[in-house]
Specification:
single chain, mainly alpha
Amino acid sequence: MLYNICYVCFMFLLYSFLGYIVEVLFCYLHNGKINFNRGFLIGPYLPIYGFSIILISFLLDKYKNDFVALFVMSCVICAILEFFTSLILEKIFKVRWWDYKDHKFNLDGRICLSNTVLFGLGGLLIIHITNPLIFKIMSAINHNVLIIITLILLSIFILDVIVSISVLIQLKISSLNFYKKDNTQEINKLRNERLKKNSLLLKRLLNAFPKVEGKNKDILVEIKKTVNKFREKKRESIKK
C-alpha cells in the first residue's frame, strides 16, 4: 500500500519537474530568453503538469489504442484542470498568474486552443512513450529505496508549498497593482527577494538565505518601493 502511494507520488513529482523544464524551454523558444520564474512554487516543478499527467495516466490508459479518443480526452482533462487552477489562484490572491488573451480562441484568458492541442499531443506522448519508459526505470529501483527517495522529495515539496503560500500571503500581493495580467514573473521576483532576506527554511534547503523573522514591515515597505519603481519604469517606457 505504501509503495503504491509512493509510486504515484513519485510520478507526480517527476512529471511536475519535467513540466517545469518544458515551460522554461517553451518560454526560451517563444521569447528568446531563459526565465526560471515559472509557476507558483519556489522549486523547479509545476504541480499542474503532475496532476494532469496522473489523471491522464490512470483515467485514459484504457484508451491507448484509440488515438482520437485519447487525444480529445487529454485535451479536455488538461483544459479543465488549467482553467480551474487559474480561477482558484486568482480568487485566493486576487491576481492573474497567466493570461492567454493574446492567443486566438481563448476562454477568459485562462485556457487557449493552441495550449490545449499541445496537451492533447502530450497525452499521446505520455501514454505511449514516457510512461512505459518511466515504469520500466521505476520497476528496476528497489522498493524501499523508491519509498525513501519519494518521502524525501515529497517533504521538500510540501515545505515549498507551505513557505510559498506563507510568503505570498505576507506580501499582500492582492493590494499591489501590476500592468500585465500575467503576473507570475513579477510576483515570484518579489517573493524571492523576500525569501533571500527573510527565510530560515529556504536556507536549510538551499543554503542561501538568512534567518526568518515573522512579519517584517521594513521588508514589505522595500517590496512596495520596488513595485513602484517597476511601475514608473513601465510608465516611462510606454511614454517613449
